[in-house]
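Try this one yourself first.
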């Protein structure tokens, strides 16, 4: 099962990319694709479409478009697709870094909810929607 992760501007600017990716690699989760991207407003609106109208919308759009991000597609080779999404969410921790457990990515490296280090698709359906925003099929490798 494939899911999208985004290492957000705050984490990229702090030099946390290698550390964050290693959390997944050490669990045996493979990278099917990886790139550094400067997101434009159009892509940011598409990514966060479900949050449009919420009071924090402008803040998350401003952050995600502010400086480069790292987008990755994780390939999680376990039988249960829902379980794969839940595993990734467990590794990244709760949305609000202040509430995320220590030992999770957000719990170890985050501070503010609107700059919460990393995004990951929250369902198989959202993974199917989010991956094509950043990757063409031929950029993803199965191995
Ligand atoms: P992310 O996983 O990228 O999905 C949407 C983002 O909105 C989320 O991480 C947070 O950064 C942000 N977010 C969610 N809830 C709030 C909130 N109550 N206040 C500010 N930002 C929020």
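Now uncover the answer:
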């Amino acid at each position: 099962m494939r899911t999208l992760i985004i290492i957000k501007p705050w984490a990229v600017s702090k030099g946390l990319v290698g550390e964050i990716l290693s959390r997944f690699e050490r669990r045996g989760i493979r990278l099917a694709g990886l790139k550094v991207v400067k997101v434009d407003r159009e892509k940011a609106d598409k990514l966060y479409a479900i949050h449009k109208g919420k009071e924090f919308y402008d803040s998350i759009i401003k952050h995600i478009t502010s400086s480069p991000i790292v987008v990755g597609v994780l390939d999680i080779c376990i039988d249960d697709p829902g379980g794969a999404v839940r595993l990734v969410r467990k590794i990244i921790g709760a949305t609000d870094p202040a509430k995320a457990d220590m030992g999770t990515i957000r719990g170890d490296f985050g501070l503010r909810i609107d700059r919460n280090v990393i995004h990951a698709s929250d369902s198989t359906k959202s993974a199917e929607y989010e991956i094509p925003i950043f990757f063409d099929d031929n950029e993803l490798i199965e191995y």
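Discussion: The chain is about 40% helix and 15% strand. Helices lie at 9-13, 17-25, 41-47, 57-64, 81-92, 105-109, 124-134.
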